[in-house]
Amino acid sequence: MTERLLQFIWQFQYFNRSQLQIEQGETLTVIGPGIYNTNQGADFLQAKLKIGNVLWAGNIELHIKASDWNKHAHNNDPNYKNVILHVVWENDLEASDMPVLVLQHRVSSILLNRYEHLMQQQDFVPCANNLQHVKDIIWLTWKDRLFVERMKRKTDHILKLLEESNNHWEEVCWWLIARNFGIKVNAEAFEIVARSVSINILAKQKNSIQQLEALLLGQAGFLENDFDEAYPQMLKKEYRYLSKKYTLQRPQVQIHFLRMRPPSFPTVRLAQLAAFIQSSNHLFSQLLDAETIEDLLMLFNVTANDYWHYHYKLDELARYQPKKLGKGTIINIIINTVGPLLFAYDNFHSLEIHKERVLKWMQELPAENNAIMEKFEERGVKNSCAFDSQSLLELKMQYCESRRCLSCSIGNVLLKFTEC
């Protein structure tokens, strides 16, 4: 037994409620179990009980053992002065001034066994073998909540970045777009590079793709070598001039090429990022004005300049291949960067218009395709659009990975005794 499981059992009243009695001998009727409290104070607030013939309204505290009340010094804590019932798994005290309800012999062994089974599972997710039994309506409502939670979590992060930038939305947008261009392996390094050269500096050099490339490649540390080709030699010269002009400090970042397909090489991504900066005008404003997915696809429809048609790395000739930003990459940017940015903007300004657009886009965009999604689909879980895949990613990363089955709607259903 864990305290969280005990809270779950009390919250949903998953115990035998017939002929309830507190340890002091009086009858107990639970009118309302209270509201689960994740903040400081008692576990459940605003509960309603009938003890004997007296109606009580107040809070409820739960512990594995009755003696935990004293161990946690609740007697002297004003946050617990309104507790009307102490719910415990085991009563290890001879007497208590607080009404005590013991649940140890009132909970079905089926529920306890199911919970133990979930906690011990080493599969993709704890309930992997039972996912196909959960009804669609449960998945639908749970995915709605998961998507909102994911957007809120990302929004909170974006609003912290906004504070760091002194409420400069364009700057935060630049940081996050650059991070996304770095893909997972180089995301942090690309964001550090973006933070080292402000969007205002880049805007001043927008007339020259070579200067934009020089700034980004130079700050990323790719212009330190001695080159044979004229183009990287020119970039190196431009970078030396611009870094002195703007007194830039080159960050110490480690950027990786290993186990990466050449079109995703960081040098190519930085060249595409330079092309994107040159083609955009007041980037964040353009995102705010976008009404359709087609608007966004056009905005991010960029190709690195001609030099990169024959290169994946500086000074290394390769066969001809224009380095156009792929549609899959653009969709990834829309899902993971544009959507959260617009959600955060609406939250900050108490708006709804951009949230509605994002929700519409997520239902129109194809589902993300990765190992996590494949495993959910193998177990009969629908993944038909980006809304679904974002919800399932939130489920996997924020619930399944940390075994938060008791806070998960799917886990709740599978722990019940009724049909899924």
Can you give me a brief rundown of this structure?
It holds the Pfam family DUF2851. With 420 residues, the protein is of the alpha/beta class.
- Count of helices? 17
Number of domains: 2
Q: Round the mean pLDDT to the nearest integer and report it.
A: 95
**Fraction in beta strands:** 5-15%
Give the beta-strand count. Answer: 8
User: What share of residues is helical?
Assistant: 40-55%
* Rg (CA only): 28 Å
- H/E series: HEEEEHEEHHHHHHHHHHEEHHHHH
Parts with pLDDT < 50 across at least 5 consecutive residues: none
Largest sheet report: 6 strands, mixed
Structural class: alpha/beta
The outline comes out as elongated
Give a description of the structure.
The chain has 420 residues and is of the alpha/beta class. The chain folds into two domains: 3-107, no CATH class; 148-364, no CATH class. The protein has 17 helices and eight strands. Strands 1, 2, 3, 4, 5 and 6 form a six-stranded mixed beta sheet that branches. Helix 4 (136-164) crosses helix 16, helix 5 packs antiparallel against helix 6 (183-196) and helix 5 runs antiparallel to helix 13. The radius of gyration is 28 Å and the shape is elongated. The mean pLDDT is 95.
